[in-house]
Amino acid sequence: MLAPSRARVLTRALGPSQASAITLPSFLVPAFQTTQTQQPQSRSFSATPAAQSKLGRTPISIPPGVELTIGAPRAKIDRTTYLRTPTRTVEVAGPLGTLNLEIPPFMNIEYDTASRMVSLSVQDQEIKKQKEMWGTKWSYLNRYVRGVSEGHTTVLRLVGIGYRATVEERPNEEQYPGQQFVVLKLGFSHPVVMPVPEGIKASAPQVTRILLEGIDKEVMHEFAAKIRRWRVPEPYKGKGIFVNDETIKLKQKKIK
Q: Does the record carry Thylakoid as a key word (predicted)?
């Protein structure tokens, strides 16, 4: 029996009657035969079995002075699809402030008041979305607990000739009582004035240093990124605004 593709070629060349009468030598028969082989079963690229999230399965310790309140399930309206999805809100209150975290419906949270430990789990560990949100929500909750108890800090370094920074209060421009403004001198013809978001405290211990303190690390780093955007570190002279331990590899000057 000839393979389908090769049989069609012989049929076109010799005709159907002559092609069916052709006999092949025994050593060529295996090459023209179609073997019924089973399709290999599809398997994942990795042979490692599915494991739990390393972060999600780790309990979170609640320090003294921090209170955790798990709200009842409620319906939340999605602004894109206008669908009602069930969700819960976890309130983390501490000596420095209060933060709220929304938990999706497929995630379970257990709070042991005796040992002051919080553990998170999901309904199905095989679903990719649930496994991704497992570690993400754990990181958010751990960050919130640390923020309301100890706080987060970010240091910005101004590197460049004439780069200066001060923190001022401008009563005529403030959006809420006691709002601060970061004033930057970065070589422009005018100073750059940036209002500090609510919940963040800014100070300038040195003329080339800006210290940001707050309980919400995400909001604080977003404000630090806005400041850095005015003078992104450049690789030829190493000038710019650096956040925390940020470094840059210097390049050689372009020689024409």
A: no
